[in-house]
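Morning!

This is the sequence you dropped in the shared folder:
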Amino acid sequence: MRIERIPARVWAYVRSAPGTYVWLGTLFVTTVALHHMSPEFEQHFLRQRSTNIHELSRTPVRVLVASAMWIATGHWVPYALLYTVVHAPAERWLGTARWLAVCALAHVLASVTSEAVLLKAIRDGMAPYSAVNTLDIGVSYALAGVVAVLAYRIATPWRYGYLLAVLVCFGLPLTDGPTFTDVGHFVAVLIGLGCRPLVRGRGKAWNPKETLASIRG
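The structure's back. Tokens below.
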């Protein structure tokens, strides 16, 4: 590949997944904004946009949307890589509308389920009442859902190895003192797998064996 063609190819790839990169651009802007806040104000600001029990009971739609526009860690570059290797291929494969549906379902249902688990823990005396204001913000539930739905992009038997790795990665934290976010991530994976009807008619599954054969040839 000629070096002067690289920017054009990169731009073409970005344009092929507009939803992914508009979202990523939004996260860049909000992350820069966070770096200009004092630590005390940042925590207060994010908590008002968190899908914690208190905010969900007051303005559920607002916080479910707002929480997906911020990164609590303040580190944008790792998410730029994850969006490029996970979200962008999924959007190109499914189309923007179906990809966005997977993201929304995983984000909303996993957020609500994880907070319901936390509420039960509070009522059972296993967590303090102050946990109703626990910070729960970010894009990881949507990311987990898309990671899971990508299993259907891979041909069998390779799909089973990928699926096993995903289930182990997200299921292992549940075996040793799981947090409500661990529960949320695993629920998001199950939701992603449940989105199989959305992948119908999206073309032939990718076969790694065929790709290797073409490279060797």
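Headline: The CA atoms of residues 26 and 69 lie 7 Å apart.

More detail when I'm at my desk.
O.
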